[in-house]
Amino acid sequence: MPVTREEARAAAYPRAVIVAAVVSPHPPLLLRELTGRVDVAAGLRATAVSALAGATASAPDVVVVVGGDHTGGAWDPGLPLDVRRFGTTGARPSPGTPTLPLSLAVGRRLLDEAGWSGPTRMHTVARDASAADVDALAGELTRPGERAVLLVLGDGSARRGEKAPGYLDERAFPYDDELAGALARGDADLLEHLDPGLADELMVLGRSAFAVLGAAVRREGATPQARLLHRDDPFGVTYLVALWQLA
Amino acid sequence: MPGAGLFRHLPVPSPRPATVAGVLKLGRREFADTDLLVMAIVNRTRDSFYDRGATWEEGRALERVRQVVAEGADIVDVGGVKAGPGEDVDAAEEVRRTAGFVAAVRAEFPDLVISVDTWRAEVGRAVCDAGADLLNDAWGGYDPVLAEVAVEYDAALVCTHTGGLAPRTPPHRMSYDDVVRSAIDDTVALAERAVSLGVDRRSVLIDPAHDFGKNTWHSLEVTRRLDEMTATGWPVLVSLSNKDFVGETLDLPVGERLAGTLAATAVSAWHGAQVYRVHEVRETRQVLDMVAGIKGTRAPARVVRGLA
């Protein structure tokens, strides 16, 4: 029986397995030094870090971090964070030094706090990424033969009240409910097909990153064991932490 | 809580220590040189200019200590003799007013830094026996034995500039080639003498003594150029509270000098003074915390705006 090249490759390199995915928000205030003498995000951070520590306890070959940003691309995970652009009195990176964008910077810090020092890859996905862009990135996340943990950084709506960053938009509530529900029950299809236009209007910075998670899980053909570990909106922005076990 | 150790991501703001010793040791307590300390005035007098006997009675004085501690005072400065001319108070009477009270404060507040404002060695000995940590020699080494008492009790010492005036003497036609130079030279000489006698280098402060041997112009210049004094590397104490240089600058009576006092406090903090001897603790604490936030030596309390 003839063997196609793809079948031969699949036999030689077992396909990649995403063993787990962790979803965390990426507000600057998760960076401890930015909030001053009070740690306003202690509970949120602890939940995200412990979800990551749990997911990486299975000793994956790699952690792949995906976060929303203005543009999509691969990032060197060894780049420094630039906390200074948000505040503190610390030194600035020397001019021209590349630094991680916010979503990946928060991911880097969470991984550090979870004790992960193993191989890491990082990608941004444009907030307005198309379905095709999302699918293409989902297909590039893992390499044949490796066991990977995904860390997906994204926030819900920032328009959840009169003091919220984007003021109040009542549509934020059903949108975030739907998003939280999908994360709670492992609904990859819903994540992949979140409405980009409405997400933009509601200042949902995580839409395209969530879509990448949805597409990656669809490609795996796995059924996630999902748990929503944290949901709140103390400053008018929805923060969600979820853990999906896939294998 | 002082220090950046709690916040491992917080950068250390200054590459060099603000004072030569780097640490201020006041009796049993040690403070980082970036900590700004409030010293609350507690008068055991009938006639001090601001409170006019409000804490003459011991119970009221203890109540004031409780209040200023609750408001954030790091140090209390107990005084038994009005700074200006007034009722004659001999050493025995000064001891009666201060020593027993120091013992009572020490019993109730084991960790509070207790200072006593006195120029007399005899009084210094009595109050150190009772538990005082700091001798505030507001009359600039008039009694040279007071520094030896500090050595004897491992107490801290404030070295002040009076322009050579005897205790309780108001300035009259004082003039200086350079008042700041005089303040630095005299206080540093007193500080170095104290250390040579055996006072712990970490326990000596210098105080330009606003209004002591100075007219308002002199006190304003000392404030304006306080950075020259802090540049000596000795920790600087300032006593600005409701003083006449504030009153004359703003043409305001004693009860209306708080805003002016706090403005002088802010400028002094910007220039690096470390200890603030005051009547109003809560307001001073706020000003110092705000200036420290601006300087970048103290993290703000709680920052959320724009970071969610």
From TrEMBL, chain B:
Top-level enzyme category: transferase
GO MF terms held by the record: dihydropteroate synthase activity
Record EC number: 2.5.1.15
Keyword Metal-binding: yes
Keyword list, A-Z: Folate biosynthesis, Magnesium, Metal-binding, Transferase
Pterin-binding domain boundaries: 36-289
Pathway noted in the entry: Cofactor biosynthesis; tetrahydrofolate biosynthesis; 7,8-dihydrofolate from 2-amino-4-hydroxy-6-hydroxymethyl-7,8-dihydropteridine diphosphate and 4-aminobenzoate: step 1/2
Cofactor(s) listed in the protein's UniProt record: Mg(2+)
Gene3D superfamilies (UniProt xref): Dihydropteroate synthase-like
Top-level division of the source organism's lineage: Bacteria
Its job: Catalyzes the condensation of para-aminobenzoate (pABA) with 6-hydroxymethyl-7,8-dihydropterin diphosphate (DHPt-PP) to form 7,8-dihydropteroate (H2Pte), the immediate precursor of folate derivatives.
Similarity section: Belongs to the DHPS family.
Protein name: Dihydropteroate synthase
Organism name: Nocardioides jiangsuensis
Gene: folP
